[in-house]
Amino acid sequence: MPDPIRILLADDHALVRRGVRLILDNEADLTVVAEAADGTEALDQAQATRPDLAILDIAMPRTTGLQAARELSRSMPHLRILMLTMYDNEQYFFEALRVGAAGYVLKSVADRDLVEACRAAMRDEPFLYPGAETALIRNYLEHAGDPGTLPARSITDREEEVLKLVAEGHSSKEIADLLFIAVKTVERHRSNILQKLGLRDRLELTRYAIRTGLIEP
């Protein structure tokens, strides 16, 4: 028998992790070797345990699953990544593809889809839920003839970090301390974010962060 697929599981809800782990560990070819409660911990656990597959919740504290997936795709290019989420949302889905995820699984049907998604990812095959397939087809038709099928990200990774922290209610001083940058740098990033995204204030930034999966509603 080949060695089981070694899995890192990241979700900020312990009950969700427990339920998902039961599903995965019940399969002879799958084993959870590490758990994480947020994206930052997931990055640390990935480096420590070197799993074959990471299953990441989209909306988590400190570092989101999407942010963690982007960093893991850069630092561990052979690691397969699945996004596990409660959000049947096209914007989250396309961002998951952009950051390198091999599949997008809804929590509501994880007991049905997750095991096959893990196996598909390890075969280098994408796993999409039915609604995502419809979204892909519609997106292709809308962008037929364009050189790229996905719109470019308008903000940088650092600006995204600042945006997330602003939306979580942190002050500029707190953000500066968390990111080890100057308060003036935080304010400059915040101004750039507002300008790039066409937003006016913290409330609109927060709404944008919810829509894009940086924070939970």
Automatic annotation (TrEMBL):
Residues of the signal peptide: none
Protein name listed in UniProt: DNA-binding response regulator
Organism per entry: Actinoplanes auranticolor
Stretches assigned to the Response regulatory domain: 6-122
One example of a Gene Ontology biological process annotation: regulation of DNA-templated transcription
Pfam families referenced in this protein's UniProt entry, alphabetically: GerE, Response_reg
PTM sites of type 4-aspartylphosphate: D57
InterPro entries named among the record's database cross-references: CheY-like_superfamily (IPR011006), NreC/VraR/RcsB-like_REC (IPR058245), Sig_transdc_resp-reg_C-effctor (IPR016032), Sig_transdc_resp-reg_receiver (IPR001789), Tscrpt_reg_LuxR_C (IPR000792), WalR-like (IPR039420)
